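User: Now give one protein:

AI:
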Amino acid sequence: MIVGTVRQRGADWFVEHSYSLHSEPALAIVSWKVIGSRRTGGLAPDLVDGLRLDSVSDQDRWQAYRQGEYLTLFTEHQGTIRKEPLPCPKVRRGIETRYRDGQWERYLKMEGWVRA
C-alpha cells in the first residue's frame, strides 16, 4: 500500500507520493491529477490540502477513512515525476558525511557509519 498526500495547485487537486532515491541525494515526488471523487456519507473526511490517503491495490483510486465512511479519489493513471534535492543535514565541523542507500550517514570514530 502506498500512502499519498492531497495537494491543491490552483483549481486542480493532486495526490502526491514521495520517496528518496537510493543512487543520489534527491527526493522523487510522483503526482497524479484527481479526476473525480466520491463520499460514502456525511462523516467521510473533507477534501483538504494535506489529507493523508491510502492507495487502493491495482487501481487508480485513493481512500481516506473516518468513522466508518470513506472519501474516494479517482486519479489519472499516468503520474508525473519530479526530483527535489535532499540537502545534507548539519553536522559538526570535521565530521565526514555520505549519501548511501537512500539516506545521509555520518562517520563516528567509536561507532562507524551511522544515520545522520
Q: What stands out?
A: The CA atoms of residues 19 and 40 lie 30 Å apart. The chain has a mean pLDDT of 92. The chain has no helices and ten strands. The two ends are 28 Å apart (CA to CA).
